[in-house]
Amino acid sequence: MTTAPRLEIRQISRSFDGRRVVDDVSLSIQPGQVTCLLGPSGCGKSTTLRIIAGVERQDSGEVLVDGQLISDGVHAVPPEGRGIGLMFQDFALFPHLSVMGNVAFGLSDKSKARARVEELLARVGMSRHIDRFPHELSGGEQQRVALARALAPRPHIMLMDEPFSGLDDRLRDDIRDETLAVLKAEETAVLLVTHEPGEAMRMADEIALMRDGRIVQRGAPYHIYNAPADRAAAAFFSDINVIPGKVQGALTETPFGQFLAPGVPDGTEVDIVIRPQHLKIDFDRHGRGPNPTPQDGTPARAVVERARFMGSESLVEFRMDFDGSALKALVPSVFLPKVGTPLWLMIRRDRCFVFPRAS
Ligand SMILES: Nc1ncnc2c1ncn2[C@@H]1O[C@H](COP(=O)(O)OP(=O)(O)OP(=O)(O)O)[C@@H](O)[C@H]1O
Ligand SMILES: [Mg+2]
Question: Which GO biological process categories is it annotated with (predicted)?
Fold first, then answer.
């Protein structure tokens, strides 16, 4: 037996002033699963979320909850009838209500409210603040109360729009992890909007990468990071190095040796993309580098232009002998060669991507 996803959207589109800001977006989320809608500013993430919440209308496409159609652009269940919890960046607690009052706000059965509020405040570590008012809480504490409030009515679906962006880094990590634990324990299906790849990697079971209103790739964080759909998808997660090439006979010849380009027509310009942490570095042996290997190809000579210690890794910038181009390498721990040192760089064939160049 297959059960319907908790939340499903099918081919949602929305235009403003003749411009499609959400373009044929489909997604489905199972109970207890977190999907992150990840993409740059203005790509249509919040609009997608607002359509699902019912506070924005789609031009076409359907929203389904547990297999039931709740909106098709013509007929729509109102936002409060959708069983969907919302948590937005600019969440506002009711200033005149205590923590207790805020969290209990959406609960209709007042006789059971106290127990539910206490349970949730315990989960988010806010039990001792139950009688305080919002102005007596820090930003992070307010955020936890907002989370408890959103979860109190046991929404089957939670939509979160950059909910952690107001917090400093350390607090954010803690609150993210707590939030995730609570949402998993409640079996909530979560759609979390963020423009930060680190947040998406940390939170998501599945990432939906969005660009110009479209979902360009969907998959587990590991998959999206290690098998990006195109150069821009690769570049969204880290700095990248790009080596240009041209395909001849399903191969492209470069100063780093040959790269396979299966199925790419002759004459196609390609970009060979490698993340800085995947460049291999070897030392110079009186003007010679290490021997070529099938895994790493041919080494190319470079000189160090700059080396900086970043804490858990070192960033080394190179100038390539063959054309004067710049490449970056991230090396674990401390590696600070002097400026001008000659070194040899190799590109691991199992770590690089070959993409036809976007016109
Ligand atoms: N009501 C509206 N009227 C006109 N244009 C709108 C409206 N709402 C959103 N837009 C436009 O649609 C595009 C997508 O907006 P949206 O808020 O969905 O982006 P986003 O991906 O959430 O970006 P950010 O990361 O900056 O929050 C933007 O160009 C925005 O200006
Ligand atoms: Mg937004």
Answer: quaternary ammonium group transport
Residue 55, Cβ density class (10 Å: 0-12 exposed, 13-18 middle, ≥19 buried)? exposed
CB count in 10 Å sphere of residue 190: 28
Indicate if ligand 1 lies below 6 Å from the C-beta of 45: yes
Q: CB under 8 Å to 209, separation ≥6 — which residues? A: 38, 39, 215, 216, 217, 218, 224, 229, 233, 236
Q: In whole angstroms, what is the distance from residue 80 CA to residue 187 CA?
A: 20
CB 22 within 8 A of CB 14: yes
Ligand nearest the Cα atom of residue 195: 1
Q: What is the pLDDT of residue 349?
A: 94
44 within ligand 1 shell (Cβ under 6 A): yes
pLDDT over 90 at 80, yes or no: no
pLDDT band at 123 (very low <50, low <70, confident <90, very high): confident
Domains of the chain with CATH codes: 7-235 (3.40.50.300), 239-356 (2.40.50.140)
Stated as kind and residue range, the H or E segment containing 190 is strand 189-194
49-75 per-position pLDDT tens digit: 999 999 999 999 999 999 999 999 789
Consecutive H or E run containing 254: strand 251-254
Pocket test for ligand 1, best of 13, 16, 19 (most atoms within 8 A of CB): 16
Q: What percent of the chain has pLDDT over 70?
A: 99
- Supply the angle between the helices 169-185 and 139-151 in degrees, to the nearest 10: 10
